[in-house]
Amino acid sequence: MSGIVTPTQAALSPGFVEPVLDAQAAFRATLDALSRPGRIETLTLRLNPPAGIDAATAAVCLTLVDGDTPVWLAPHAAADRAAAWIAFHTGAPVTSVAADAAFAVVLDAASLPALDGFDWGSDEEPQRGATLIVQVPALAGQGGWTLSGPGIAARAALRVDGLPESFLAARRAMTGAFPRGLDILFTSGARLAALPRTTILEA
After folding, report:
1. What are the φ/ψ torsions at residue 116 (nearest 5 degrees)?
2. Contact 188, 53 (CB under 8 A)
3. Which domains does the chain possess?
4. Cα-based distances in Å from 86 to 12, 51, 138, 177
C-alpha cells in the first residue's frame, strides 16, 4: 500500500448515519477522552464501517482526519479497505511511510510498530507529533496501568488488552522527550480511551 489510495466499491459504505449530529457526538466523546486520560467513553451513534474496523475506530477517523492530515495504516487484513474508506470519507492522503503520518491507524494492537518510528514533533512544533489510533480487543477501567498527570485528579486506572509486551517500556521512555511525543487513542468496539503524551504511565 503506497501513495494515495483510490476509493473502491467497499469504501462506499456509509459514514455517519446522521453526519452533523453523529460528528458532534463523536468529537465530544473524543475530546472528553483526551481531556480525561484513562476514562472510557462509549459512543452511541450508528455507524457501519467495513469489516475489521470497529465503530469507535471509524468514528475517531471521521472526526479527526481530513484532507490536510496524512494517514498511515499498519499492515492488516482489513488495512486496504480501511484506507480506501478513510480516504473516501475524509479526503485524507494515505501514506506508506509511518514517519510522514499525522495519524496512524493500527487495527491489530499486537502488531503496533515501535513508537520511535512515528513523528514526535519537535521542541519548537510539538503539535506536529502524530496521533495513533490503536484498535484493541478490550478496554477496562480497572487493573492494568496507573495513570497520573493533567486531567486526572489523583490516579486513574486503565487496562488495555492486546498490546506488545514492549509497549509499556517504550511509552515510559517517551516521557523524557516532552513536549515532543505521541497522543494515543485506544478503541474497542464502540468504546475509546486516550493516553495523551502528558500522561505519566506506571505498571
Report:
1. -75, 0
2. no
3. 17-202 (3.40.50.11310)
4. 10, 13, 23, 31
What's the whole-model pTM score? 0.92
- The 3-class SS string of the chain reads CCCCCCCCHHHHCCCECCHHHHHHHHHHHHHHHHHCCCCCEECCCCECCCCCCCHHHHHHHHHHCCCCCCEEECCCCCHHHHHHHHHHHHCCCECCCHHHCCEEEECCHHHCCCHHHCCCCCCCCHHHCCEEEEECCCEEEEEEEEEECCCCCCCEEEEECCCCCCHHHHHHHHHHHCCCCCEEEEEECCEEEEECCCCEEEC
Report the amino acid identity of residue 105.
Answer: V
Residue 67: burial class (beta carbons within 10 Å; 0-12, 13-18, 19+) = exposed
Residue type, 41: E
Match 470497529 to its residue by C-alpha cell. Answer: 54
**pLDDT tens across 122-154, in order?**
999 999 999 999 999 999 999 999 999 999 998
Residue with cell 476514562: 39
pLDDT tens digits along 145-198: 999 999 999 899 999 999 999 999 999 999 889 999 999 999 999 999 999 999
> What Å distances lie between residue 142 and 132, 158, 202, CA to CA?
22, 6, 13
List the grid coordinates of 158: 486503565
